[in-house]
Design goal:
single chain; six-stranded mixed beta sheet; 519 residues; disordered N terminus; 15 helices; alpha+beta
């Protein structure tokens, strides 16, 4: 099996002094590295030019010069790894594992989506991969990164699609060394044994070995678990995701630019959905309209080279709930009819360059709100706008405190339109979900980060109050069977003036919705 880091005499001395990244950075060394790192078979004239994801070399319209992934520079990925390494004790190892492929049926797979922590640290977007980051104060970057990935395999690639290979792991994604994934157990054993033997005070292994939140872990996790058991290093094992999520919680300017575009794309799609909506259609038609319009929003009709639609896909399975279907918080069947007089609750978002949007709008099938619908909608909208105004660091609020405020505000609004309900009824029946969550690479981003912490600048959060009135004699008859939720994506500012709503392009006021839907 081909190994990047065992290239014998011609490279061993250079590698010991400089490492593969240093060799790659020199003009003479770059050509030598390319010739040494490629197997004979990977010099196939077709597959040797392929990568497993867009790069600047192959897709300059998507990935800019100096970027590893669309919108995120090589330097930003390096800084993310540096900050992680700085938070670790000397000699510690961080293992980030890829997601697995999931199958619908034999040989029929779901679209791959990378583990968000691995993607955040590397930008690498292939399965069967591991990145190992070791804190090394004497190294040029303060850390070393070894990647274990699938090597180039032309015959396989002609059937299954391109792979980036070991060479790109070093030259494009910033690894110091790269090895075939089949060699992971052997090299992980060496890394753990050496770290353990070094006796560095406080060293640790940071890895997420158990599936959480419904996520299945890579098969390489089991191999690492056995390695740690044999090395009797169990007391040195810590969760990696807590450290990475803490970093992911505060967005960089580049990340906010991508999320701003995700919001714009989704807003254009909501506008298209409202314009297409009419009695007699199916919820499924609105869903397909949203997905098509999301891609179309990234097509510049005047220039074929400006088509960026490859950068978007649905951020999650959407909700298109007409009528009483809106009483279900996450109704995703989306197969019912649109009836005159009903509302549609649409909770959908486009992902752009791996970053999610998460927007909800509620609008009338006929294009005009009835009086009860108008009253209930106005109640939710008033509360939502009040809560958005609290999304800044100087407010001193946490998401939990904003939620408590939203509950009190909804009770006040409901009284004004004829509801006589207790706080318990609101919390358990009319408004049973939280008002907010964090947003980023994942829709429910950084799920281990407490919503009790005070908001900080450049967090991105959702604000989504709702009211869902069941068929219950305790509530006014005119409102029964109506479900309304309104959700926007908010960049937390230092002050209220610096707070940014990323989803303003999706019509939200009653006047704007009815104007958009006017026929």
């Amino acid at each position: 099996m081909f190994r990047v880091t065992t290239i014998a005499g011609r490279i061993s001395a250079c590698r010991s002094r400089l490492g593969l990244r240093a060799l790659h950075s020199s003009k003479a060394g770059c050509g030598l590295l390319s010739s040494l790192l490629q197997t004979a078979t990977s010099k196939d004239p077709i597959t040797s030019q392929w990568f497993g994801q867009p790069t600047h070399a192959t897709h300059p319209e998507l990935v800019g010069k100096g970027e590893t992934t669309p919108g995120i520079s090589q330097n930003e990925y390096d800084q993310r790894r540096r900050r992680l390494a700085e938070s670790l004790p000397d000699g510690s190892l961080a293992f980030a594992f890829s997601s697995q492929m999931h199958f619908v049926s034999p040989h029929v797979f779901h679209e791959f989506r990378q583990d968000s922590d691995l993607f955040y640290l590397t930008g690498w977007n292939e399965p069967e991969s591991v990145a190992v980051i070791q804190k090394a104060p004497l190294a040029e970057r303060g850390y070393t990164m070894t990647m274990f990935v699938r090597p180039k395999a032309p015959e396989t690639e002609l059937w299954e699609g391109p792979r980036s290979g070991l060479e790109a792991a070093v030259s494009v994604f910033g690894a110091d060394e790269a090895w075939p994934i089949c060699d992971f157990a052997r090299h992980a054993t060496r890394l753990v044994t050496d770290a353990h033997a070094s006796g560095a005070g406080g060293w640790g292994v940071y890895a997420d070995l158990d599936g959480e939140h419904g996520m299945t872990r890579s098969s390489q996790c089991d191999k690492l678990r056995h390695i740690l058991q044999r090395a009797q290093a169990g007391s040195h094992v810590h969760r990696l995701t807590s450290l990475v999520q803490r970093a992911r919680l505060i967005k960089s300017p580049a990340e906010i630019r991508l999320m701003r575009e995700a919001g714009r794309v989704s807003g254009a799609a909501f506008t298209a959905v409202m314009r297409a909506c009419r009695p007699g259609l199916s919820e499924a038609t609105l869903q397909s309209t949203f997905e098509y319009a999301s891609r179309q929003a990234l097509v510049d009709a005047g220039s074929a080279t400006a088509d960026l639609s490859a950068l978007t896909r649905p951020a999650y399975v959407p909700v298109f709930a007409a009528g009483e279907h809106a009483l279900c918080m996450h109704y995703v069947l989306n197969n019912g009819p649109l009836r005159d007089g009903d509302l549609v609750l649409a909770d959908a978002g486009a992902e752009y360059a791996a970053y999610a949007s998460d927007i909800t709008r509620t609008f009338p099938v006929s294009g005009r709100f009835s009086e009860p619908q108008r009253d209930l909608y106005s109640a939710v909208l008033n509360v939502q706008e009040q809560m958005i105004r609290l999304c800044h660091a100087s407010s001193g609020y946490s998401l939990n405190e904003i939620h408590r405020s939203s509950t009190s505000a909804l009770i006040t609004e409901l009284k004004q339109i004829g509801f006589h309900t207790s706080e318990r009824d609101v919390e358990t029946r009319l408004y049973p979900h939280h008002v907010a969550h964090y947003l980023g690479l994942d829709v429910h981003d950084t799920v281990d980060m407490a919503r009790s912490q005070v908001l900080k600048p450049n967090m991105v959060v959702t604000i989504e109050p709702g009211l869902y009135v069941p068929y219950d004699d305790r509530f006014p008859k005119a409102f029964r069977g109506i479900g309304i939720r309104i959700e926007d994506n908010i960049v937390v500012g230092r002050s209220e003036a610096e707070t940014e709503n990323l989803s303003t392009s999706a019509p939200k006021s009653i006047a704007d919705i009815e104007r958009c839907m006017a026929r």
